[in-house]
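Input (Tyrosine specific protein phosphatases domain-containing protein):
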Amino acid sequence: MMRCVFASSSFSSSTCLTSGRFSNDSSTTTVVHKNNRNVFSSSNANQRRLRRGGRGVLAFQKGAVVSSSSAKEQEDYDRRFQESTNAGLMLNGNRAPRGGDSPPEGRWSWTLNWDYMTFDRETEVPIENPSEQELKECSMLIGSCPRSPGDIDRLIDEAGVEAIVCLQCELCHEAMEIDWEPIRKRCLERNVVILRVSVRDFDRLDQSRRLADMTRAFNLLHDGLGRKTYVHCTAGINRASLTVLGYLTFCRGMELQKAMNIIRTCRPQSNPYEVSWQRARKMLLSERVEDLYLYANTDGGGCSKEEGGDWIARDMDKAERGIIQQMFQRSLEVDKGLSHALLNLNQDGK
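Output:
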């Protein structure tokens, strides 16, 4: 039986549906990840962050002076907490992240942490208690945002990360006091490919518009270049998990609920906006009526009437998933060709 191991990291994580309407709010945060150790006590994690002068915890301690950026972090925390509560989720999940430092219990503050997307490739069922070997072999991780070059080192040294997709926008970096350029340079120094797709936090409309780009970037690094890929937003709750949802459904052709089950199991705090996924899928299928007809009749679609039930809806869903998967497969061919052409151009220029 073949098993596929992926990893996910987060601050707070994201899984599913929050509300049926779109919001234009745009504050943001990211997630980073780390693997190797399974459990970190929040008290020990806080002590380690204090010793190395880490950000995120001191801002919320009693009696501390709160800066404008810290106030923005607190505002975003309150919003994440409310969204998680509305979705019936625990903000920090029902267990410690499998990599990195655990967030403090009962509140949100930044830590570098991640989880692994581990599932059986044949059955598409999540591996709830992965072995050390399965975690080591996992090629997809979701987590919180790295805030310094040192965090990049941790992701590489502790989790074996080879590629990173950053989903934070400028507002996220401002709120978290992140200097992007030193992080980008450290990735280059350590031979890690990093791509940034700027997506606004909490903004369902923007996330629906950018989901195809988010998924395409991840697909290039993970499938196209064959790299162990870390995807992060600020906390690893919404945008990062939405990207993995896009990858599993759009690139691998997985059914929505199976993909959601994998994400929620592997990253319990994840809360991807399902309404953004639905709208993005609708945009991908726009003007594709002829393609759907051809797929259903010639490309492995077929009629499942004899299986009973709502066979028309079932066959249409299969055709739609097949068409979208073909679209991303063809896009991957273009993206790989472009990346190889640029690499050759750079080498020839030397």
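The longest strand covers residues 113-120.
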